[in-house]
Amino acid sequence: MQLQEYISGLSGKRVAVIGVGVSNTPLIELLLDNGVSVTACDRNTRDKFGALADRLEAKGAELRLGNDYLCGLDHDVIFKTPGMRPDIPELLAARERGSVITSEMEVFFEVCPCKIIAVTGSDGKTTTTTIIAKLLEAARYKVHLGGNIGKPLLAEADSIGVHDYAVVELSSFQLMTMKRSANVAVVTNIAPNHLDYHTSMDEYTQSKKNIYAFQDPSDLLVLNADNEVTAAAMGEAKGKLRSFSRRNSVKNGCWFDGDSIWYSNGKFDLKIVSRKNIKLPGLHNVENYMAAFAAVMDIVGENVCRRVAAEFGGVEHRIELVREKDGVRYYNDSIASSPSRSIAGLKSFDEKVILIAGGYDKHIPYDVLGPVICERVKKLVLVGATSPKIKEAVLACEDEQKPEIYEHEDFETAIRAAAALAEAGDVVILSPASASFDLFKNFMERGERFREIVNSL
Fold first, then answer.
1. Do residues 143 and 167 make contact, with C-beta atoms less than 8 angstroms apart?
2. Cβ proximity of 77 and 102 under 8 Å
3. Comparing C-alpha atoms, which of 316, 318, 284, 325 is closest to residue 415?
4. CA triple 108-110-111, angle to 5 deg
5. Strand order in the sheet with 14-18
6. pLDDT by residue (tens digit) across 166-218?
7. How many CB atoms lie within 10 A of CB 456?
8. How far from 418 is each of 325, 332, 345, 412, 457, CA to CA, in Å?
9. Which of 132, 130, 118, 117 minimizes the C-alpha distance to 175?
């Protein structure tokens, strides 16, 4: 089905779009521009939207804003925002009345004319998604990057060619109700995360698995052989299977021998790139490259893989060097919204660092973080709701070399305190091991604020 065919099918129907944000605003305007009756619903009040509210109303939208934004959901089709659970009472009632509940990404999977390569995981999905896009672009393919990264793609589906590639990052929120899967699905790893949203670890895991649950025999699944959950899922592949490992060689996929990344296709082994020639630091980025290579090696070839690995400098907010001042290097790793992601960041440095951590509590365990902080951190600066959990994990560590711990209530104060503790030769890194929602809209805003403060020192 093409996009215009889908939109034509909405003729005469009433459509509600819940969430007037980055992903849904282009959708709302697309529907309005095609004569579809749209009610735009959002819990924010009108003053938060300014000129956008006026623009949408001028195009014919009905705005339902504020605390009662979910009242009277009796529309034929309802697009929900990714962060809204599908089983809230208002959506359940609407479904019982006959409403079709969907999302921007679900419809994109239905109308996209080209192959879709999708990446999910608890850690590493944004970098892996970006690497895949870079590899395909370097091989001269037209790439459409979106999903949980980049921009929403549904409104642009008619401009996508059949020989292009859509490369999308998908969160557990987006995947939870998906009934279609990617042509190439990559799961970087699965570890406890977003348990403030999901009712259990099992629900979280099953949501992630929707990225490949509806594949067919011609599709490809790439899984992490070193991760307990993804390794156990290898028997669930509906089509071709490749794995990646930095512990052992694999028969189909990528593996790391301690020095170089290799690719195996079941017939021969091919050395792709030495770790010293990968511009991105850290073993976790070796894993990200292995996942990406396994996904598209047969499309792009080894020379493209080597070139991109040598040239790609990374994504914003992911161990991003902000500046060096008075011999102190400041790194922004705001993407690290879980303990496992911060562990990977800390292991990227040879020296002990000054760590700034803490943030919104997603109700996940922090005990695994304590030993790594004791091993890799010399001074720990805490701020945010998870500070007590992180402190407890450190104090519970049997290692006698515990870092000095400093607790602050204000984000800027914490950063300036970390800077005051630093001496020439030190590394100061913001790697929160927590979500950002206690103080910021998202991890990008948190990282940008960190940059501002560091550059003002």
1. yes
2. yes
3. 325
4. 70
5. 62-65, 37-42, 14-18, 77-79, 100-102
6. 999 999 989 999 999 999 999 999 987 776 777 898 999 999 999 999 999 99
7. 9
8. 13, 13, 17, 10, 11
9. 118
